[in-house]
Amino acid sequence: MHIAEDLEYWEKLKEKLLEEVSEFNKDESIEELADIIEVIDAISTHKEFDRNEIERVKNEKAEEKGKFNERIILDES
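The structure assignment produced for this chain is given below.
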């Protein structure tokens, strides 16, 4: 066991996110979704992303492209 330096930690976070998404694809459970959110929280903290700024960007994109919960699918052209 060791404490990761920034670059190693960042690489591990990205790997972990892919791993957790893969696990969610196999087992669509609340536990697997919680694991994804945990990794996203760690990424947000590591990258020093402001939660309010994330929400602002998310809302801008939703206004421009719609929301997933509206079931809008952009067709490829």
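Interim note for the steering committee: DSSP finds three helices and no strands in the chain. The CA atoms of residues 27 and 65 lie 29 Å apart.
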